[in-house]
Amino acid sequence: MTLRLEPAELSLAALDRAEADSVAAFVGPARPLQGLAGLLDWRLCAAISRAIVAGTFAPGSGEVLLLPGGGRLAAGRVLCFGLSDESEEAALAAVAHAGEVLGKAGCRSLAASLPVERPGEGILRAWIETGLRHGLSRQVLLGDVRALTRDLAAAARGLGAEVEIAGPPARVEPGERDVRLPVRSPVVR
Known about the structure:
The protein is an alpha/beta fold.
C-alpha cells in the first residue's frame, strides 16, 4: 500500500476543502483549544468544549471523543484524542493510540494535524508507520505546508517506505486583464 500525504495550511478554508472520511485532532491541556482542535470546536459550535466542561471527555487521560461532522464538515466523523502534554513521549503515545483507533474505525482517508506544532523526526516517522500499519492510505495534514513537506519527505526516506508526498500548491498568478474603457452610449432621460 502506498501512503499519500497532502500537507495543507491549518485554516478553516483548508479544513472545509479536505476530502476525507474522518478528521482527527489532538486535544491537549491548553484552553482555549488551540490548532485544529480549536478550528473544529468553532466549526462544530463548541461541541468539544462542551464535552470537556461536562466531563464526558477528559483530554489528559488519553480518551477518545467521537463526534459527527453534522454537515458542517465534509468528513462524516470527528475523532478527538487526548494529549496529556506536548512532550515527545506523550505525542508518540498519542500517535500510536490514534492509529489503532482510526484503523479499528475503518478510516481510509483522514484530515489531521500532528500532536505538536513542530514535530521532530521521531514523531513524523511514527505517524507514517502508523498510517501504513493501519491502512490510512490518504491523509491531509494541516500545519505549516513547507515545513511539513520537507520534514515528511526526510522521515519517509529514513524509513524507506512507499510514501507519496504532495508538494505545496503552486502559487497562481492572475492573468492580464483586458482593460478597456466602456463604450460611450447615449444617455436616456
